[in-house]
Amino acid sequence: MSxxxxxxGGAGSQPRSEAWKTALTxxxxxxPPFVPEGAEAMTVIVEFPPGDPGTPPHRHxxxxxxxxxxxxxxxxxxxxxxxVIKAGETFWEPGGDVIHYQDGNxxxxxxxxxxxxxxxxxxxxxLTLVDDEELARRRHLRAPRPGT
Length: 148
Prior knowledge:
By secondary structure, this protein is mainly beta.
């Protein structure tokens, strides 16, 4: 009997698994902004060595959905307080005009690894660094940070 016959439940096939009914665990659910036609989706793994500050302040052209695989990330979006995301936790950001200030490794004794799926607006780069002038102009939009 062929694999196709077994999959179709042909004579002599094994009983179908019921595991699919409980196999899915929702880790995160968000309502992203409109995704324009022609947008590109990409999934990447980002890895930083111990203590690395991560990507300089930047923005993404579309929403990003992430899952922390290992270690800890110090995460900060414009208008939100910085927070630590640990392995097994999720994060998301709307993209567009929101500055992503921090994504660095919060640990000095181990690497950090996270997986991110991003929607990139048509014709736009996935990541654009923000210069010091813009950071100064938007300073009032950044949430207070510990010790400031």
